[in-house]
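testing teh design pipeline on a random one, pls ignore if ur not involved
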């Protein structure tokens, strides 16, 4: 199915039956992923799921126990092997988790080092460094020592080093972890800018919102296995569920919260299009929003809004955030990891999910 000539033309990276064992432990287990030219693929999974291990294999830092990795170097899709690794990896920029830089060097020195390491044309290096530094908004910092940089700025330098040789493919392992919201947004904007310039990006994260904002497709990995790989819209429509967030002008008080919730349940539940046993309406005290599970159909969404307004609820926010469903799916799919279930139970659980989701076994 995945080997037709037509799909091959668009594929820029292929992981075929990739398995990595450490002793008897399967860190990555029979993973099949194809990344197409120009797309952003988000790689989600809990701690220890196998994200970094899979990404390191793509960068030839680790050798798969089984399976093959194919990379489009210069035109052709080729199998990554020792004899061609340097040539193929020149087409990839790779950011490892938590890059470490010595404090007494400057961005100019680091970027020059990486550009030369990756064989970027010597005469053009200086101009390229200035371009990239400008793209990251760090022009004034180009000759400053890294020890004076904030974590977010260092992370940007990490990403800049990954792309300094202008590769077509960019692999970023948790580029946003540990950053504040502004720095996260900067990195998110940068990723979108890179996509716009035609790059293909594979990025891992725990940050569901960040992934849902940038990724064209999302691969979810749990205990070394890919449990879902699709667009967010498709994941959403396969799950046939979504969540509406509602904020009222006057937030409910502790003493009347239950009666408001009961009234909402009575009025809204029949309009959600979700079966009775799945139905829920919750109130999040931190965000002061009501959350309602519904079938994702815009018609139901509209009926719910109309009903609220008909009952004089003063609605000041009524939205269906993209990340809401992703969060549910994620928690649902990775649950076995925290429950320490046996493989049998996990398999049964996956079969149950298969009805709702595209699951690669
Ligand atoms: N060199 C190694 N030797 C033995 N086990 C390893 C090695 N590298 C990784 N592992 C194990 O493989 C599993 C996957 O690790 P990996 O670092 O790929 O997870 P991850 O998804 O990147 O997690 P995180 O979100 O915490 O970064 C973990 O259980 C880890 O302990
Ligand atoms: Mg990791």
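output:
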């Amino acid at each position: 199915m995945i080997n037709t000539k037509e799909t091959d033309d668009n594929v820029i990276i292929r992981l075929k039956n990739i398995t990595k064992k450490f002793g008897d432990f399967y860190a990555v287990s029979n993973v099949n992923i194809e990344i197409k030219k120009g797309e952003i693929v988000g790689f989600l999974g809990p701690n220890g799921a196998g994200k970094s291990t899979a990404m390191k294999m793509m960068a030839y830092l680790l050798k798969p126990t089984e399976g093959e990795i194919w990379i489009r170097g210069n035109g052709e899709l080729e199998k990554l092997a020792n004899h061609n690794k340097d040539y193929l990896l020149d087409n990839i920029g790779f950011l490892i988790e938590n890059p470490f830089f010595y404090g007494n060097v400057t961005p100019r020195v680091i970027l020059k080092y990486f550009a030369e390491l990756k064989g970027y044309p010597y005469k053009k290096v200086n101009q390229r460094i200035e371009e990239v530094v400008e793209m990251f908004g760090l022009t004034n910092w180009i000759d400053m020592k890294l020890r004076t940089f904030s974590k977010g700025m260092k992370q940007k330098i990490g990403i800049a080093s990954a792309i300094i040789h202008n590769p077509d493919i960019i692999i970023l392992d948790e580029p946003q972890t540990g950053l504040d919201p502004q720095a996260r947004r900067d990195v998110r904007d940068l990723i979108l800018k890179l996509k716009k310039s035609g790059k293909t990006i594979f990025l891992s994260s725990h940050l569901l919102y960040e992934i849902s904002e940038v990724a064209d497709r999302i691969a979810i990995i749990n205990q070394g296995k890919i449990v879902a790989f699709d667009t967010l819209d498709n994941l959403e429509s396969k799950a046939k569920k979504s969540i509406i967030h509602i904020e009222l002008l006057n937030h409910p008080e502790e003493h009347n919260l239950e009666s408001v919730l009961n009234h909402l349940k009575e009025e809204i539940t029949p309009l959600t299009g979700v079966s009775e046993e799945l139905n829920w309406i919750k109130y999040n005290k931190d965000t002061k929003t009501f959350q309602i599970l519904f079938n994702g159909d815009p018609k139901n969404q509209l009926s719910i809004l109309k009903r609220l307004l008909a009952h004089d609820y003063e609605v000041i926010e009524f939205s269906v955030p993209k990340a809401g469903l992703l969060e549910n799916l994620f928690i649902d799919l990775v649950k076995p990891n925290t429950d320490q279930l046996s493989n049998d139970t996990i398999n049964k659980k996956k079969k149950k999910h298969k009805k709702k989701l595209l699951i690669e076994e």
